[in-house]
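Our example pasted here:


***
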Amino acid sequence: MQNRIKRYGAIVRLEHWTIALSGIVLIFTGLGCLPLFKRYYITEIPGLKWTADFYTVTKIHYLASIFFVMGVIFHIFFHGLRKDSGLIPGLRDFIDSFKVILSSFGIGGHPPCDKWLPKQKVAYVGIGFTTLLVVTSGFFKV
C-alpha cells in the first residue's frame, strides 16, 4: 500500500462524477429530444413512460447541461489555477503512446510511466476537444 500513488482527491472525484453522470443523462435525454423513444417503444419499458413527454425530457436535458457545463468550467479553472498540467501530453507522450501500442503486439517494451500512462494523456486531450465541441454545439439549436 505504501507504493501506491494517490491520483485524485475528493474534489476531483466529485467533479468527475458530476460531469460523467450529467453526460450520461445528456446522452439519454438528447436521444429523447429527437424523439426516438416513442418510435422505438422505449416508453413501453416500465418506469420510462415519462420519456414520451418531450417537454419533460427537454427540461431534464437542460438541467443536466447546467451541471455538465459548470463541471467543465470548474475543471478548467480548478486545475488551471493549481497549475495541474500532469495530464497535458508532451511530444514524448505521443511517442510513448505509440510504443505502448506496439508493445501490446509484442514489439518492443512498455515505456516506464509515472502517475498516468502516455495513452491516458493523449486520450485526455481527445476527450477535452470532444467536450468543447459538444458544449459549443449545445448552445446552438437547429
Summary: The first helix runs from residue 10 to 32. Residues 102 and 108 are 7 Å apart (CA to CA).
